[in-house]
């Protein structure tokens, strides 16, 4: 109940509030003991007209059905559901909730605790005393049932992770995620002016039905160049069709359709078929793997495209300078192709290896992957005969793992065996051998071996991390699946690998405030020259007099492919400027050009930021601008750049999605297309500020909002930002939580009331007034006021012309209608509301009406 404006005549409700509070405090000491109110202390005109029965017991809930959110040990929130309260067997004057088997299954009880459970009502309700220490407390105002379960009876859980019994598969729905980038360019080459535009897009269309996720990936491109003599090119491709679901009992994921063989043993390739694999994402956070990271340096405003075998995994616009892409799916493995398309038309291309660190498995656990199907290309055409295969890793003892795999088919076979060991202080090491055999139609049999050694170690004494160091040697006749398919279908073999060295190292120099990272890849081939990539990054944060938080960074790289070097160096110096801005100098040196730039960056608000820069290179001066805005419906990036006599370019990128379900729909931002998301319902109230998982947005005109990029199998929390709540809205529940399976569309509802406020006096037809303590209930079956002395009531969250009922003696006794014009909150005149009596009282009580709102209306 909201405190009314300060007036002398409303002091009595405050006395009532004090009495109720004292009663509740007393009830904590004797929870089940009824409290008797001394009506003589109340300054009332008619003490016979008082209804305080619902305040006579602390925590008492009248028998009936209630829609409540269930919270376990104050943290874990289970979806809203119907909870039946019935008279207690120990004390008929008290009530207790009926916990059905379907609810108890989601509590995450250990097997030994499940054997102790006893049931009543023919197995429909749990006997609370069957588990020592289990208590239940309802808070109807917060719309929640609080269960306290001793931790000893619960399965393992972490701060942000729930056991499988609490995972939510979500609700059925449709989704469309997209990322569209357009650019308009004008270039001058040899005094010839060329104009052109490009429009590139990619995304995912999907549907959820029960535990199944249906996904179709697409990508498109339109390119036009005036004066080139070439026609406008345009294409649209569906790149992948997939259906998948989680199998929590197996800790695995089942995939049907087109997929990549994301293996830690064999090289990745595309195929159509079935795949069953243990999913590390289902493990607690401290047991999960890692997601690959892509980093580089952009010389200008650029478009970065990360792809694998032609399929776009990530596409984004970046500003000049170093960039880092950290939100790739952790299921991506193998070699990734990275293309940086600069604003001046130049292109950087390099590859990133995402090979896993040593393949170690915890003692007694088995990780596996089973696959069967046929290899396919980007256009869904089969490229080879059927195959079947699998791989495993078995934790033999504490520190030793045995792993291996097999790919078997009519023409291509591969067998791998390996061993890994945790050498404790010496690091982690693994070694494996893979033998392949390709029997190509009409050609000789090619068979060979490949040897691989992986090593990883953390140096705690010097705060260093060797992420992985790997060496691989392949004989001339060894072929992975991609080599075999290329030779079979095109009659030639590309990139016949011989040796590969890979190193990734990170070092922190805490006393100097310096962090350093090093990555190195060296590849040699049987049929062409070698390639090398070396990247080194140094960053230091320091203070200089009155200037604080200055950062100095140096990034250098050497990229040599087929004997052609592409070396570069990036230097930047940045310092804070103003309240939230920064000013920086950056210099880029490479074989093409030397560029120097001064940049100012700042925030417009919590959702918008920008940066402008000016500089020069060998061709003259240049200017650039970058703007980003996080709208409720999409993320918007805009770029603009110009260099007189060279080029002018403008770019616009929009990334977002639309999610539609039977419970509502909303447009929203999204970074991981097709991923997990949560639809939140603010009970039809628009403009409610929502925060969760790094997102800040408002509910749309229908009272719906979608928080995307939710982590799979994490306990995610979304809340209403009470500091930004509109003045005419109130939220009795402001926090919801959900642990969702991969790709799920979760649904949670906030209890929000919006409307005007008014002081009123309620009178019955015969001139009497409702009793002191009667409830005023609106059409959404929420309490909007409590009747005070003389029929006075302070109403909140009301609407003009709204019909409401007044309840006492556990029944709806009369009905009133608000006028079309409500008085101002500052108007000292009370609103007179006649209340039409309901003959004999409404036949259904409030609890039943809450459970069946349509029937009650």
TrEMBL record:
Domain of life of the native organism: Bacteria
Signal peptide segment: 1-32
Major subcellular location class: membrane
Chain ranges of the PapC N-terminal domain: 36-182
InterPro entries registered for this protein in UniProt: Fimb_usher (IPR000015), FimD_plug_dom (IPR042186), PapC-like_C (IPR025949), PapC-like_C_sf (IPR043142), PapC_N (IPR025885), PapC_N_sf (IPR037224)
An individual GO BP term: pilus assembly
UniProt keyword Amino-acid biosynthesis present: no
Family: Belongs to the fimbrial export usher family.
Protein name: Fimbrial assembly protein
Organism: Serratia oryzae
